[in-house]
Amino acid sequence: MSTPDVSVIIPVYNEEEGLQSLFDRLYPALDKLQTSYEIVFINDGSRDRSAAILREQFQKRPDVTRVILFNGNFGQHKAIMAGFEHCRGKKIVTLDADLQNPPEDIGNLLAKMDEGYDYVGSIRRQRSDSWWRHVASRAMNHLRERITHIKMTDQGCMLRAYSRDIIDTINQCNEVNTFIPALAYSFARHPTEITVGHEERAAGESKYSLYSLIRLNFDLMTGFSIVPLQMFSMIGIAVSIFSAFFVVFLMIRRLIVGPEAEGMFTLFAIAFFLIGIALFGIGLLGEYVGRIYQEVRHRPRYLIQAILEQKE
To answer: What would you give as a GO molecular function for this chain, any one (predicted)?
Structure first.
């Protein structure tokens, strides 16, 4: 098969209301670039008519359209990994199907790659998200940078461009759960970022709940650093030293003042606080053990039902 210059990878999950708007903007934007391209749609087990709409679009533009149909819902990042493993382009761009990132900005990312960068991230110019997403995103960006030393101004924006070398390296990784932008950044030699537009959803609702965002950031932190475990080791040492001094203090106080019951509630409060720290540390350790458990099972990351593509 011929090798296109650009591959655009788009995961799709229950996006039937907005797919036609995506087609109407995406194909003209890529045609204007006057370069060879392919668009790889990955249907991530949609329960609406998304798969049927993608089949119809493939029949309209089979020369530049490919569709990967999962037989279940495996998640956005696994869908993108499937796109990476099946795309053929020299430059690869990831894009969400909800049109929050304008397809017209793809040309800006590719132009930046022509300057010699192998990874181009994006920063949303004016985020059209709720206030709690702004606050949570800024807090997690700061925490992630301190823990993993991966510098991404806007980790939630999926409009990004990658060189073929980075994609080939990512495809060699067999991790079950990972955070693709951070993984790519760790392999990049000349990364950069540009500002892109951000619009309200054209149709449908966000597929990321608060729980999903928390799980994603756990994958990010536990998948790229053991600093959280080291932090709790240091906290454990500090609490142990403090507890030793506190026990000595209570013994001396008992010898001087004598038996007393007034401090009982204070001791309960301290005990509950320490128990809370211990439980949180056990939960964090469980996150790492859970990742190990998922890796050693060696189960496939996704299952493909069919691939729609034009045979040469």
So the answer is: undecaprenyl-phosphate 4-deoxy-4-formamido-L-arabinose transferase activity
Question: Could you tell me which residues come within 8 angstroms of residue 10 by beta carbon, excluding any fewer than 6 positions away?
Answer: 22, 39, 40, 41, 42, 83, 94, 95, 96, 97
Report the C-alpha gap between 220 and 214 in whole angstroms: 10
Model confidence pLDDT, tens digit, residues 261-275: 566 666 776 777 778
d(CA 91, CA 95) in angstroms, rounded, equals 13
179 pLDDT more than 70: yes
Distance (Å, whole) CA 295 – CA 240: 34
The pair of three-digit structure tokens given for residue 190, joined into one six-digit string: 């000349």
Total Cβ atoms within 10 A of residue 106 = 24
Smallest CA-to-CA distance from 44 within 96, 112, 108 is with: 96
CB 120 within 8 A of CB 181: no
**37-43 and 191-196 strand pairing:** unpaired
Angle, in degrees to the nearest 10, between helices 106-113 and 19-31: 40
